[in-house]
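PROTEIN FOLDING TASK:
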Amino acid sequence: MRVTTLIASLLISSQALAHTPVCRCELTGNDITCTGQFHDGSEASGVAMTVFDYHNATLASGQLNKQSRFQFTQPQQPFYIIMDAGPGEMFEVDWKDVKGLAPSTYP
């Protein structure tokens, strides 16, 4: 019984790790383009994306498209992006981690 429980636990935990969302964002002109996927390399189309300012006001929202991309206009204030793949499956990108944005972009 213990061996069966151990094997089941290992299978469940490996599946959970395989679906950890990851996201990378970069400046493309006046827009920010984010590309998301799961840790195992599978695509993440349809996953919810929300852009917030530091007061938690929503600046933009949508979903990753069929290419697992989400694009929005660069906000005028500091922001962060949440990729929400479901309960306990979130990934956050702060504006400081967006490729192409200079550290002096926002005061």
Q: What stands out?
A: Confidence is low (pLDDT under 50) at residues 3-18.
